[in-house]
Structure formats: C-alpha cells, structure tokens
Amino acid sequence: MSKIEDWGIHKVTLPLPFELDHINCYALKGNAGWSIVDCGVNIVASKNHWLDFMRTNNIRPEDIKAIYVTHYHPDHYGAAGWLQKISGAPIYMSSPEARAVEIFQKEKSRFIEALNILYQTNGMPTILLDTFCKSLNEMGSLVEPVAKISIINSNEKVKIGNLYFQIINTPGHADGHLCFYNEQFGILISGDQLLPEISPNISLWPGRDPNPLGSFLQSLQQLRQLPIKLVLPAHGQPFRDPVKRIDQIEGHHRERLKQMRQIAAQGATAYEIVRETFNTDLSPLEMRLAMGEVLAHLAYLVHKGELKVKNEKGVNVYHAVD
C-alpha cells in the first residue's frame, strides 16, 4: 500500500481553538514548487506549525506556488491571508465561497442581523442571541488578514503538486464547497464533505441555499459514482471504502429527519427541537451549529412536503402535514 508521501502529499495537522481540535491541511510537492489545500485558522499555534513544516521540508515561503481553499470556514480559510502574505501565492476558491468572504468582511453586521432575525423567528431566546452575536464577532480575528482570491470552477482540472485533480462542486456543508479528485490514483481530498467519524454540520443560512441538506445528499450521490480509493479528509484519519461511509452518513440523516419529524408532529419551533435533540449544555458555537442543523433538516422536510410551517405570533412553528 502506497503512503501518501509517495505521491508527494503531506498531511499537515494543525490545532484548532474549538471542540473539534484539529484540521488536516495538505501540502503537495511538485517539480515547480509546493501547493497547499486548506490553511487552518489565523492563530499563533497554527502559523508556528506551518513554519515548522516548512523548515523540516526545506521549503522557502516563495516555494509555495498555489493555495486552494475548499470553503470559507475559519478552520479552512483562516490563515490563507497570512500564507499569501509570506509566499505571494494565489489563493483559489469557488465563486460562492469568494462571495461569502466578501459578505463577512464587508457586510458582517448586516449578515449577523439577518442571522439573528432568522434565529429569533425560529424561537431562540434573546439572551442567547446576544451571546451568539458576540461569539460570531470574535471569529473575525481567526480569518484575517483578508486574502486576494482567484476563482476556480467545478469540472476544471488543476495541477496540485505533480498530480492533476478534477474540481468537484459539493454544496451542502457550504454553498461552494469543493473537493479535489485525482483519477490516476483514486485520491479524493474531501475537505469537510466526507469525514471518517463525524458528519459535517449542514446549516441553513440567511440568503444562501434554501435546502442545504438536499444539496449535501445530492453531493454524496455524486461522490458515490466515483471510483475513489483513498479519502484525505479535513478531520480524522485518511480512509478507504468511501461508499460504506456515505451509507453511514445517509443513515445518520435519515434517523435525524425521523426524529425531528416526530418532535414537530404536534407543533414545535426549531429552538424547541434543538432542546429535544441535542445536549442542553451547549457553548455559543455549538448552539449555532445545532440551530443551523435543525433548520436545515426542517427546511428539507418542508421541501419534501412532510412538514408545514406556520408563523404564529412572529415565531415559526412546524407541524405535521394534514
């Protein structure tokens, strides 16, 4: 069995200041220099890990020729601006994720207001909204400095290191989430789309995909059709047998949909369903993820005609369909 280093691929595991405490980034060595996929957050520990990796492998900053970001979440994009600053390398993302960067940097207060309205109309108490708003504002330092972004498109082929990868658009976890597939060796750099032990968070966001869970499940079917031999995920260890893992993730969401359908049958807000479904002792970040995930599942059920939603005194209440 080949080691990924035999293909010039190096897994660079960086610390995260969250419950999910690490991210796997990938550095690929090529004849013309190095390419990076995902960057970690902009914290001292993360940057020190990158500098240690560069020293160990005799990489000068200018040897980094390209940086690819699977999607605009802090653990994937956060240190991109710093890496670009020290290397001069271009940063490549999908168009929807580049737009997400622009929204958060230029329209953050408006975005947070829209998110607060979404959560408030779905039953979240005001005191939690205030805490949540503060925690989201604090995320800003993790994604600075701002990077200059170049756009890449689905189905293009790009040379990363010495390998050619097809860009695959896999929306759901993020509207413009990208995976990178090497047909020659059956390697998938999966970002957060396909993880070995956890299911990626699928959240409903204001102004974005109105049915993200539907998009995510369709993306899984797209990957199911590929002869993938090895998955290189953003969290957890590389793994084989992606079809088995896709089956498990789909099963997880079937169970979650069944559970939420039952809770909502007699009438419930999204926040009430969060309280029934998840641990009640949630951090602000965990509450945001839980609320977004419940809303995504409810939106899927409404889209499928299995639930209906009524606005009752300014709050959305979900009910079984008559």
TrEMBL record:
PANTHER family tied to this protein: ENDORIBONUCLEASE LACTB2 (PTHR23131), METALLO-BETA-LACTAMASE SUPERFAMILY POTEIN (PTHR23131:SF4)
Domain of life: Bacteria
Domain Metallo-beta-lactamase: 22-235
CDD domains the UniProt entry points to: TTHA1429-like_MBL-fold
Species: Calderihabitans maritimus
SUPFAM superfamilies, A to Z: Metallo-hydrolase/oxidoreductase (SSF56281)
Pfam families tied to this protein: B_lactamase-like_C, Lactamase_B
InterPro entries the record matches: B_lactamase-like_C, Metallo-B-lactamas, RibonucZ/Hydroxyglut_hydro, Sec-metab_biosynth-thioest, WH-like_DNA-bd_sf
Descriptive protein name: Beta-lactamase domain-containing protein
